[in-house]
Amino acid sequence: MSVPRTETIFTWGAPPVKFGTGAVDELAHECAQHGLSRVVLVTDPGVAATGVPERVSDGLEQGGIDVVVYDGVHVEPTDASFRAAAAFAAGQSWDGIIAVGGGSSIDTAKAINLLTAHPGADLMDFVNKPVGGGRAPTAPLKPLIAVPTTAGTGAECTAVCVLDVLDLKVKTGISHARLRPTLAVVDPLVTLTVPPGVTAAAGMDVLCHALESYTARSYESFPRKDPGERVAYCGANPISDVFTERALGLLARSFRTAVMAGNNLAARSDMLLAALFAGMGFGNAGVHIPHACAYPIAGRVRDHHPDGYPPDEPMVPHGQSVAVTAPAAFRFTYPADAERHLRVAELLDPRVAARTEDPRERLPQALVHLMRDIGIPNGLSALGYGEPDLGDLVEGAMAQQRLLATAPREVGAPELEQILADSLHNW
Question: What is the pTM (predicted TM-score) of this model?
Fold first, then answer.
C-alpha cells in the first residue's frame, strides 16, 4: 500500500483536569495518588506575596507531603533563570513538582523537570530549531502538577515552555509531549487578586491562542510524517476546533468583566476555563504569526514598564506582545480561509461583526474594540518601537519557523515587515 504524501493523522493530548473553587485544597490527595512524598513547589516572588503558595504548601504538609519551595522564578523566564531554577532543584531530593503561578512558573517547572532528568545536558540542546538543537527528551520526567493563578498561557495543559535567550535577544521555546503536566488543578479563587493590567495581558494571550489555533493550517495540509517525527503542534483539527470555539464564547462573555471587576468569581471562572480550553486547542493545533512576532517584541524590549508587573526592569508581557500584531496578522491571513475568520469574529463580538461592512475587517475591528476597552497598548509604538526597529523585529520573527510553518498563508520577511509596520498603531 502506498503511503499518502500529505498527513492523514492528527494527534491530540491534554492532562487530566481538576477544576473548581477549593480545588487547591485537594493537592495533598492528588500527590498521594501519584505516589509523591516530597515535592518542589515552584513559584515567583509576586505570586508568593499573595499567600497562595503558602496556602498550598501548608495544605500539602498537613496532608503528609514534604515541600521544598523555590520562589525565584523570573517573570517572563530566560535561559539564565531556567538554569538557575534547575540548579536549585538538582541540589534537592524530590519526587515531583508543583507549579503555582502563571505561565512563567509553570514553564520554569517544565524546564526543571527536563533539565534535572538529563544531567549534564545543555538547555540550548532542547530549544526549538533553528535557535537551539531541537533535541527530544530521552529520559523519563517526574510528575508535574500545574496550578495556574492567572488566566493566560494555558501552560497547565500544553507541551511547551517559553523563554528569552538573553544573548540572542529572542524569545523561543522547548516543545515536546513529555513536557505536558501530569495534572492541572485549576481553582478560580486564586485568581481574584490578579491586577487589571495582568488580567488584560494574560487574557489577550488566551484570545490569541484561540484565534491562531482556529485559523492555523489544517493538519491535512502538512507533509506526511513518520510516527516518531510528529510534533505537538500538528495544525488545526476537529478536536482543537471544539475547544477553541468554546474558549471564544467564554471570552466574549467575561473578559471585560474580569478586567474591570476582578472580584467577580463567575467572570474569573470563565477566564480560567477559557485559558484551559484555548490551551487544549493551541497546545495541539499550534499558533502562528502573532506569536512569532511576539517573541522578538518581548525579547528586544528597551524601556516599557507595564502596569501590574514588577517595576524593576523593562518588559513586554507576553500577552501584550502577542496582541499588538494580531489585528494586522488576521487581516493578512483572512484570504486563506474567510469562513473561519468570520466565524471567530462572530463569536468574539457579534455587534462589531454586524456593523463592519468589509468582511476582512470584522475580526481586526473586534480585536481593536476589545483592546481599547481593556487598556492594551496601541501598537508597537506604545511599547517603545518605531520604524527603524522593524528590520530587527522581522529577523527575530523569521527565527520562529516552527510557528510560521503553521500560518495558513505563506509568510516571509516582506510580509512580516508589512504586518509589523501596520501594527505600529492599531487605532
Answer: 0.92
